[in-house]
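Extended Data, panel c. Modelled sequence:
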Amino acid sequence: MCRIHRYGAVAGASVADTPGAAGSPMRSVERAFDVLGVLEEGRVPLRLSEVARRAGLHVATTQRLLNVLIARGYAVREDAGYQVGPGVLTAAHAFLVGSRLGQAGLPVLQQLAATTGLAVSLFIPVGDARVQIARVEGRNPLRYLLPVGEKLPLHLGAGKSLLPWLPEAEREAVIATVCPFVTAAGVRVGEAEFREELRAVRDRGYAISVGERVADVCGVSAPIQGGHGLAGGITAVARVHELDADDHVRIGAELLRAAGAIATRLP
């Protein structure tokens, strides 16, 4: 599976760890992040052999990298295995506090939630996914929890508002990986259909999703184009029965204005 590295170029899976291969500081850093990524995606404690298998590394190499991550607080070892450590919270907090996008976006999100009455959120592309960095509830809070920091796919829901504006190589890698796929509502989407949907998103400037990631939830999303290109996106979500096609258009226009307002506040 191809992994998309942002903010950077498309890269393949991590370099295979072969016995006797010449090491380098850069490869060690890459491998450490591969191991951390395995722990992050695992969501449950993983045995050493499973971490090594998923990272594509030898067990001895994996053990050395885990020892370093544990010493820095980015991993912990429990009876059931290894998992992400509390050090990642410190790094995440530093990002949230210092993020210019978050600072610029929060007051706009608050105004957007008040105007539309919907739950709205701000997210950024990270690798082959998007990560929510801020959220403001509407008048009728949704019953499902989508916490800040949650990693979500680019081909479902609000991710479609980012995908058309990614560099071609990154976009093609995502399409090749996910198609065909089935939405939460049970709709099968082939590559041709998905490409047509992405063209429609680019033409109108915002994405519409109905029952894609969560069966009874719909959303409208728009990209934020900063001075250096795609900076992130915003989305407004509701229950499917609460919005019709006319609402999608109205909310889309609101989101485009909000995205533009955020963009003007960015350096």
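The longest helix spans residues 245-264. This feature is highlighted in the accompanying rendering.
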